[in-house]
Amino acid sequence: MATMDNFTSLSSFTAEIFLAGFIILLLAASFFRKNRESGMGFAYAAGIFGIVGTLLFELQGWTADNNAVYLFYGMLRNDSLAHLFKLLCLLSSLLLLVFSLVSRETNRRFDNTAEYVLLILSATFGMMLMASSENLLMMYLSLEFLSLTSYMLTGFTDRDAKTSEAAVKYLLYGGIASGVMLYGLSLLYGITGALDYASMREFFAGHEVSGIILHISIIMVMAGMGFKIASFPFHSWCPDVYEGAMTPFTAFLSVGSKAAGFAIIIRFFSQIFGLETTTKLGHTFDWQTTIAVLSACSMTFGNLAALQQKNIKRLLAYSSIAHAGYILMAVACRSQLGVTSAFFYLSVYFLMNFGAFLVVIIISNELNSDMVSDYEGLVWKNRKGAFLAAMFAIYLFSLTGVPPFAGFIGKFYLLLSVLEKGRALYWLAGVAVLNTVISFYYYSRILRLMLLSRRLKGADLSEMQRGDYLPYSLMAGLAILTILFGIYWTPLYNFSRLAGMAMK
Q: CA 98 to CA 102: how far, in whole Å?
C-alpha cells in the first residue's frame, strides 16, 4: 500500500479535481446570466455534464489491481470500496438532476436554478470525499460538507411553510448530531493519540483498552453516523424532511446520502477494528452487538410506523428507516460477505427506490398531492395510469423482497451474511424475516388501492405526451433492471464483491 504526498496524490484525485473546478466554473458563469429563468435549461445541462464528466474520470482512475492507495499523507484512501461508493453517489446525483428537470415541483418553486445545481454538485463532492476518508478529521469535514449542502437543498425554497419547517428541523437535529459526534471523535483521539484509521487500529491491537470513556466515544460517533443514514433512534428528522423537501431531493436523500453514510460506517468500523479478527477492543466494547441491536430497532420501528401513514412520502421515509436497519445487519456481521451484501443491497435499493420516487413525482405533477388515497383506482384511469401502476407495483414488490425481483436477492444476501456468523446472530435474521412480513402489509395496501379498487377517486390523469419520453423511459429502464437483477444477479454480485475484498 503506497502513501503519496500532496503533489503526487493529484494524479489519483482527478475526478474530485474536475468536479471542484467545474463547480467554480459554473459559479462564475452564473454571475453573467442576467435572466435567471431562461438559464434553467443551461444549468441542468451543465450539471448533468459535470456529473457525467466526473463519472468518466472516476472510471478512468479505477485501477484493476485493487490495491489501496493512500492520498495526501493518508487523509484519503482509494480502493475498490471507495470507487464503488463514488459511482453509486455520482449516479444518485445524476438521477437527482434528471428528476429535477422533469418535476414541475422544482421548476415552479424557485427561479435561480444555477444555485440549486451548484448545491447538488457540492453535495456530490462531499459524498466522494466521505467514501474515501481514512482520517477522523477528513471524515468529519466531508460529512459536515454534505450535511450543510443538504440543509440548504431541503429549504431551498421558502414559499412553503412545510418546507421551511423541515429545513429548520433538519438543521437543528443535524447540528446536535454533529456536536455529539465531534465530541466522540475528540475522546477517541484522546484515547489513541491518532487521527488516521491505520494508526488507531495498531493502537487497539497492541493495547488493552478499558473504561467507560471508550464506550461513550464510540456511541457518540455512532450517533452522528446513525443520523446520516436515518437509523433508529437518530431518525426523528427523516419523516418531516422527506415530506417537506422537494420530491427529487427526497429521493436523493433516501439513496445517495444514505450510501455515503454507510461508506463511512463500513470504513470506520472495518479498518479500525478489523474484519474476521478479534482485537483487544472486542473484550471491552462489543460494537458488533450494538450495531445488531440498532439494526433490529431500526427495521422494527420503521415498518411499524409506516403502517399508519397516509402521505406517500412519509410512508417511504419510514420505509427508508427500515431499510437502513436491513443494511446494518450486514455491517454487524463484520465480514467480507457482510460488506459485499451491504453494497449489493444499496445497489438494488438505488434502482427500486429511485423508481418508486419517480412514480411519485409523475403523479404529484398530475394531482398536486402526495396522499396515498390519490392512488386509488390508478390502473383503471387510462393507459398512463395503467403504466404508472405497473411500474409502481414492480418497485413495491422489490422493496418488500418478493421474488423474482432484485430486492429479494438483496435481502437473501443480507440474511446469508448474518447466518454465516453462526448462532450469535440468528435472532437478527429472525427479526428481519418478521419485519419483511410486516412491510408487506403497508406496501400491499398501496397495491390494493391501485390495482383492485375500481373507484376512480381524485382527478383524472392526462394522456401520455410524446415530449414525456424521458421520465417514462427512465422509469421503464429502472423497472427492467429491477427484474433483471432478480433473475440474473451474478454480474452485480461480482461487482459488489470488490467492496468486500477491499476490507481486509
A: 7
Nearest to 90 by CA among 45, 123, 41: 123
Return d(Cα 320, Cα 491) in angstroms, integer: 26
Query: For 75, what's the count of Cα atoms within 13 Å in the CB-facing half-sphere?
Result: 13
Q: By the 8 A CB rule, do 449 and 389 touch?
A: no
CA-to-CA separations, 112 to 98, 251, 365, in angstroms, rounded: 17, 21, 20
DSSP reduced 3-state for 377: coil
Q: Model's pTM, two decimal places?
A: 0.92
Q: What single string gives the DSSP state of each residue in 202-248?
A: HHHHHS---SHHHHHHHHHHHHHHHHHHT-TTS-THHHHHHHHS-HH
pLDDT tens for each residue of 335-359:
888 899 999 999 999 999 999 999 9
Q: Percentage helix, strand, coil, to 5, in the chain?
A: 80, 5, 20
The CA-to-CA distance between both ends of the chain, in Å, stands at 12
Grid coordinates representing 87 are 459511482
Sign of the dihedral through C-alpha 263, 268, 272, 277:
negative
Sorted by sequence, the CB contacts under 8 Å of residue 292 that are 6+ apart come out as 328, 329, 332, 425, 428
Q: Which is nearest to 110 in space by CA: 157, 65, 146?
A: 157
Where on the phi/psi map is residue 335: left (φ > 0), alpha (ψ -120 to 50), or beta?
beta
- For 355-408, the pLDDT digits (tens) are 999 999 988 888 777 888 888 888 887 788 888 889 999 999 999 989 889 999
Element (H, E) at 78: strand 76-78
Closest by alpha carbon to 261, among 304, 229, 306?
Answer: 229
Q: How far apart are CA 480 and CA 473, in angstroms?
A: 10
b/e per residue 197-207 (b: at least 16 CB within 10 A): bbebbebbeee
Element (H, E) at 76: strand 76-78
